[in-house]
Amino acid sequence: MQPIKTLKKMKKLLVLLFVLSVISCKNTATKQKENSNKDLGKNRIEVLDFYGKHRCVSCLNIERNTKATLKKHFQKEMDNGIISFKMVQWDDPKNDALVNKYQAAGTSLIIHTIANGKETINDISDFAFKKSDKDAVFETELVKKINNALALVK
């Protein structure tokens, strides 16, 4: 009888650990913010992938799909400095300023557009998590989102 109780406790613990890892990995807030500032420099797009020390499969897929999409569709813009990609570890204290600026409470994918003195922060994390395991759909939708941002900077 004792081994069965132990197995049930272990099963409950594993389920709890799984749920906690998913919660810590996903930032469900969708936010878009605009600020005006004349000192924002040249028009550009920054794609930021916030990740944690412990990464789930979805988090890894988001990184892989984002990098592949940028390389395949936007290499020229990246070479010209119009688009940049940055990985930011959100649970590293040295990145607190960026985490606070983008309100990244976990894994987040952000498109930050700077156009004509205005910055727009578009948190596309929900999209990224929902489509992280569907490579072709992720690519198609991310291309649309980046093209929308490019229309603002040109």
Structure description:
The protein has 154 residues and is an alpha+beta fold. It has one domain: Glutaredoxin (3-Layer(aba) Sandwich), CATH 3.40.30. It is built from five helices and five strands. A five-stranded mixed beta sheet has the order 1-5-4-2-3, sandwiched between helices. Helix 2 (57-79) runs parallel beside helix 5 (135-153). Residues 26-39 have low confidence and may be disordered.
Q: What best-fitting shape do the alpha-carbon axes yield?
A: elongated
User: What structural category do the secondary elements indicate?
Assistant: alpha+beta
State the end-to-end CA separation.
70 Å
Give the biggest beta sheet: 5 strands, mixed
CATH topology-level fold name: Glutaredoxin
Radius of gyration: 18 Å
- What is the number of beta strands? 5
Separate helix tally: 5
Give helix % range: 40-55%
Annotated CATH homologous superfamily: Glutaredoxin
Strand content: 15-25%
- Extract low-pLDDT stretches: 26-39
Number of structural domains: 1
Q: What would CATH call the class?
A: Alpha Beta
Strand order of the largest sheet: 1-5-4-2-3
How are the SSEs ordered, and which strands pair?
Blueprint (H helix, E strand, L loop, with lengths): L1 H24 L6 E5 L7 E8 L5 H23 L3 E7 L6 H7 L5 E8 L2 E6 L1 H7 L3 H19 L1
Parallel strand pairs: 2-3
Antiparallel strand pairs: 1-5, 2-4, 4-5
Helix pairs in contact: 2-5
Features of the shown structure:
154 residues; alpha+beta; Glutaredoxin; five-stranded mixed sheet; 5 helices; elongated
